[in-house]
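Supplementary notes for students who missed Thursday's class. We covered one full example, reproduced here. Read the sequence, then the structure, then the short commentary at the end.
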Amino acid sequence: HRAFGHIDILQESHLEKGKFLDDCKVLFIPPDTEYLPEKTIEKIDSWVKKGGTLIACGRSGIFNHEQQKTNRFTNIFSTTYGENITSPVEGVSFLPTSGWRLLPHKSKVIYSYKDGTPAGTTFSYGKGRAVLLGFTPTDSKLLLQLTEGVNTVVCKSSNSDACAQSFRSKGGDAYYVVAVNHKRKRQKTTVMLDLPKREYCIYDLLTGKSLTYSYIDNILHVPLELGVAWGRLIGILPQVPSQLELALSKTQFVPGERLVYQIIMLDENGKRLNCSLPVKIKVIDAEGNERNEYGGMHTLVGGKYQKTFTLADNDPEGEWKVVVKERISCKEVKKIFNVRGGNR
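Structure (token representation):
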């Protein structure tokens, strides 16, 4: 999870190869992800020690890829799973669809079932933090205490089989909704949010398509269709992303020199759009190679992103390009700069 507003869906192969994790702040392992390869857990272990925040629930990672029971996650969470339980969680207005008692070792209990047994724990692991829930957190208010810098608003789903959660990005005017279908059949649902009544621009963040909405009794209703065991990430923006701007610190550089670029998204009135928007940044060198270390997938936080990097002493001379594409509006902007001279 990067600078909330941009969510990467990672596969085990991505983690094993070390991709994306260095740019992530929070890694959420979905419910019922019981099988995880040993190499994947090793990468996650190292990432948390370096400062990452790991959140898992629903007996995640209790088996390895050979379907053998493993305790590899025990060290990270300092907690193990106990027996199944159906008791509600204290202070939470729902009954877990599936829950397990937790057996904490050195971890701190943050939630308990009504019988007093642990339902959620947190543990400082290296420089990072590991949060383990014995239940599926379908109440959005829980996420306020799990992820720093994220505020929540009330969000419900009309279909009890579809888990919906809602967040508002810190400092932004946009709302982001995650709706997940846990069933192996297509389902329709309506996400309902208690938001200020006004006009919104609502998008599917995975496809960039606009979505319809309506107000019923002053509650925002967004109808969704969810694929088999799939989910939707929805952005509710205050205005349409209208103009994408890219600025470079200058256009002439020498190898080894520092370069700064800044990206801003403006609304229809020419003002910076105060929300989080995902962007794909391509930096293409003079030989036509895409330089991922200088670009990549990032998020405009409060409508703005800035990156500073230093050209290598042996970077090729000639014309370079910076190409930025915002993934919701699909707007694209390009700038050219030149690398000349310098000592080889």
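Commentary. The CA atoms of residues 86 and 99 lie 6 Å apart. The radius of gyration is 22 Å. If anything here is unclear, bring it to office hours.
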